[in-house]
Design brief:
Immunoglobulin-like; five-stranded mixed β-sheet; transmembrane; receptor; TonB-dep_rcpt-like; membrane; siderophore uptake transmembrane transporter activity
Amino acid sequence: MNCLDSSPQKRHKDSRFPVTPPTRKGAVSHMPSHLGRREHLTVLACVIALLLGPTLIGPAVSSAQAQTGAITGKITDESGVGVPYANVFIKGTQLGGMANAEGKFTIVKVPVGNYTLSVRSVGHAAIEKTVQVNANQTATVDFQITEQAVKMKQVDIKGDVKIAIRKKDSSTKQIVTSEDLRSLPVDNYKEAIGLKAGVISQGGELHFRGGRGDEVLTIVNGIASRNPLRAEGVDLGLLAVSSSEQVLGGLDAQYGNALSGVINLTTREGGDKFGGEIRYFTDRYGEVDKSFNNFERVSTGFGGPFLFPKTNYFISFEGTYTDTYLRNVATHREHRFLDFIRLGNRQSNSAKLSSKLTFKLTPNEKLNFEIIKNRSLDGEFQNRWNRQGFVHVIQDSTAPTDGTITTRYGAWSYFQVDSSYIPMNTAEHLPVTDEDYLQTAVTWKHTLGVGTIYNLRASRQEWQTTTDVLDRMPWEYQQLPNNYYDPQNRLEGPYYVTNGDYPFFERKRTVTYTMNGDFSKRLGKSVDLGGHPHNFMAGGDINYNDLGFLKTNFPNILTGQGLYGADRDEFRFFNPEGSFFLQDRWEYEGMVMNAGIRYDNFSVGNQISSAEVVDRVKTQISPRIGIAYPISDRDVMSFHYGRLFQVPDRQYIYQGRLISATSRGNPNLEPQTTISYQLGVQHLFNKDIYGQFGVYFKDIFGLLTTVEQEIPGFAITVPTYVNADYASSRGVEVTLIKRFSHGFAGELNYTYGNTTGTASDPNRALPNQGNLRDQFKPTSEQPLDWDQRHNISATLSLGNEKDWRSSFVYQFGSGFPFTPHQREERRQNPELVNSRRLPSISTLSMQGERFFRAWGQDLTLYVQGTNLLDAENITDLTPDLWPPGAINRDSYNIYYTETGRAGGAFLTQDQDGDGREDWYPVRDPRVFQQGRTIRVGLGVQF
């Protein structure tokens, strides 16, 4: 089932990836169009191995932490005195226990979800509260019970969950709840994460504590969701997420393949009663031209009991359709949802569907089946390829000997001068990216007893991405001679290009099979009984990857190998990998020690010849140790040391196997390494206000860059990826949280960070289309592109639960670094790399909600505004301007360096007589952040 199905269907394309284009006789494609019988048997054998893995290894297999939390609290009477030995239990489970002599209780190893907590005590009225348990968090719920001499009706109260400090945790974590995602003016969970201390958001990437954007691992319900080809995670609709936990530092041994941090996502499950909501947002106010971005979003989430006893379901859908603030003039293709629902033509279209079926076989056994399906179609914006009008067609007067006649484009006009002028919409010749993601997963949770739980999980994930022009195959591209508009001859009019199809084609397909699991057990007597308890965990995972890749520039050019596309890169590889970990939490004399060790195994597979591979299988052992010291009931100090590894994106291992490639992967790459230290303090000011303070230092080495190396068997050298770059990051984080009380709630996050390194990107040392400026690497550490020294975010929520609520978000960040360039320079001075700063950025956004009831339904009216002050923030000083013509990306940088004005420009005639060419501004909107937008919405709860 496709969430979006574009029409018309793509021609010449088989449903299976990859597709091999026609070649000349004798030419060989390195990417087969389908699996042969041997490959099928190989995949089958691997799947069988994955299915048998838990049996062979035992119940302790996983790379992801068990999705459990804890509940703690105190039971008091009307005078505030603790009620001793009251019974506390979670309805529908066998989890619970008895409060101690002071009325305090703790329930550990509670699976993530919403529960009803019940308290019973002789001589007191029974009472219940509902509570939400998040992964690796402790929810605090206090009870005040009243004395009753006679049997009374049970009291049902909605739980008022208080803030609790993590007394036994030595890591730094930030939490985003489902309520945050509903009330904040954000479009996705990543925007909400970007508001947290220690997180820098730049260009759609999240940088945790100074790390690169591909160093954050996303885990969904205990299963790692990362495309091994290029480190992209899954996106979920806002109504699909139950909670999001960000681990920024102090990663314990259960977390692997993540240099900077982890995002732990938990999806929602259906309850015992049917319920849900529908929301609709738009910025269209009647007429099409009365709109900011032609934006519409419809989302729904609903669930309840299923057909069978003890079975629940939850389904969510989110569809977003917008022309974005980077709207081009192309006529967008029609697309459909579920093959029969027509959706409007927009430049950016996405659909996110998730469904979960839960079988509660017994109070201690739960089985989940889940499907996540995402589809998106995104058109590109290029300032030079965004013109609609007429172009003069000229044909060569002298026919060549082979009989072909070359068509050239001449003058441009916004009206048809004569019949030799033909219609031209350059934006329609830009590529469209079609992304498709599908995950099917099954999870099994079994509570063997108090404090003893094991989890087993299996999943299949598939990523497919195609980027092409007008659904064309490489040999169908129309590449016309480069007749760019010449600004030297005319001073008026916008700059444009008429050069046929944008010369780029890409297709990728990745399939990952995963089996993982974990086992945890609480050992020893509790501290209250004078013991020194252990919380032991073990686990591991098995993964098998099927990687397919095809990318080419100038797709219709036929190479000497008989294959289409200059700079062609094509491969199909398979590789297995796995891990195992041990983790223990030991409580002794008021101190909690978290110690663990992790073993990772990675193989490049058997398809690369032994002559090119030094070690076909690579292993790593990484220790982790943390200490938490609860100073009081309100204060905890912690320290953590960890050695973290991450296997490079597989594209840097396998790419460039063809001679025509301009860069080459390296099967001998080692894992990238981070040595991390952190010191943290948590303080509970009162029952409503919580603070977290952290200091961190990270030493990062083995990062990727390129050096010239000879291809084995050929007398040529090609830039090859190696582990040679390094970086360091240090900083301070402060978080203050006030829960909702007295009519308001708030959160303040501040980060000071200093991130330096030898390069911000693995491709930094590659030749930039013949421009020698970028080939000279820094000789010492320089600020990296995302080195934002000061970052502040503040949220404020006002209102009441019955009538209204307003949430405000303010963000401020100091300027990002950039490298100044001069028009006369021949080579770049390494000491000037990122030596100057852009202006600071700031935004103010809000979301208002008005609650009311009509026609027997709970309704909500929304108004949402982003960048309310319409601040002109620079987000990308030098956007992509490939392929180069009369203007290139350095012109944008030089223009800003010389004038202090952003937006891009090209050089034209000398108008002031100073002997130098003058600038003609183009005002490229990609340089700036989106301006002010106002949306309205309606929600229905049922």
